[in-house]
Amino acid sequence: MKFLLVFDFDHTIVDENSDTWIVKCAPEKKLPNGLRNSYRPGCWTEYMGRVFVYLGDNGVKEDEMKRTMTTIPFTAGMVDLLGFIGENKELFDCIIVSDSNTVFIDWILKAADFHKVFDEVFTNPAAFSSTGYLTVQNFHAHRCAKCPKNLCKRKVLKEFLDKQLERGVSYTQIVYIGDGGNDLCPVMFLKKDDIAMPRQGYTLEKKISQLAQDLRPVECSVLVWSCATEIMSYLKVLIKE
Predict the structure, then answer these.
(1) Minimal CA–CA distance to 19: which of 140, 112, 130, 103?
(2) Residue (of 215, 232, 136) closest to 175 by Cα position
(3) Are 11 and 180 in contact, with CB atoms under 8 Å apart?
(4) Contact criterion met (CB below 8 Å) for 45 and 135
(5) Which residues are known binding-site members for Mg(2+)?
(6) Which SUPFAM superfamilies match (predicted)?
(7) pLDDT digits (tens, 9 = 90+) for 134-165
(8) Burial of 129 (0-12, 13-18, 19+ CB in 10 A)
(9) How confident is the model over 52-102, as pLDDT tens digits?
(10) In angstroms, rounded to a whole number, what is the distance separating the alpha carbons of residues 25 and 15?
(11) What are phi and psi of 36, to 5 degrees?
(12) Closest by Cα among 94, 115, 97 to 5
């Protein structure tokens, strides 16, 4: 009996957007209008690439970025939840599927000593160039019309489950914890024994309830949370059953 926990990162594990948090490193803690207005829907990763060039051009170094990123606050109750999962790793496999990047997530998890809680992190690959600039790439290519072009979380989840099945691992239940519009696609892939846990007041919750109103409800169960201790309470019940 094993459960798979799938976490989004921004506004789910941490209480902010890691990509916008890095702007605290910019001169006067803001971006020039021209750069801010250069974002095009579905092309966030390219936009962040331009942000990182701007930070590099202004002499922002890796250590300053790291110091800034590790001050990002965890969502209420999340430290307790991740501690609980860490103590029960024999029951839970745990992955992150996020539109952030490998460098930010790695820094934040390691600083709080939570990197061992997660078996795998699926996010946009990032690295520092020889000139000290942070660079980021799209996670993959896909054909899903519903998702941003760099990442379809349903595809990631499906490929992970297929790979686990090849290893002989299947899950009693998948618990999907997220907040954003790009979490809807993987939630619609979940089956009736699975559970989606959208964060209260965020886009994912609104989209799921809109589907229910349109009489096209998601197949899985839905449990809304505002503090991560509510997720922990659910998991405690789950492992007792």
Answers:
(1) 103
(2) 232
(3) yes
(4) no
(5) 8, 10, 179
(6) HAD-like (SSF56784)
(7) 999 999 989 998 899 899 999 999 999 999 99
(8) exposed
(9) 999 999 999 999 999 999 999 999 999 999 999 999 999 999 999 999 999
(10) 18
(11) -60, -40
(12) 94
Q: Which residues are catalytic?
A: 8, 10
Tell the residue number behind the tokens 């926990």, with chain if given: 5
Binding residues for substrate are 19, 99
> Which structural domains are found in the chain, ordered by start?
2-15+74-124+148-239 (3.40.50.1000)
234, two tokens: 């659910």
Crossing angle (nearest 10°) for helices 102-111 and 62-69:
60
Q: How far apart are CA 8 and CA 28, in angstroms?
A: 30
Q: Which residues pair with 161 in a beta bridge?
A: none
Kindly report each contact of residues 88-93 with a partner whose C-beta sits within 8 Å and lies 24 or more positions away, as own/partner: 88/235, 88/239, 89/117, 91/1, 91/2, 91/3, 91/239, 92/2, 92/3, 92/4, 92/5, 92/235, 93/2, 93/3, 93/4, 93/5, 93/119, 93/164, 93/169, 93/171
* Whole-number Å distance between alpha carbons of 21 and 31: 12
At 139, the amino acid letter reads: F
* DSSP symbols for 28-97: GG---HHHHTT--TT-HHHHHHHHHHHHHHTT--HHHHHHHHTTPPBPTTHHHHHHHHHHTTTTEEEEEE
Cα separation, 122 vs 139, in Å, equals 8
The identity of residue 181, as a single letter, is: G
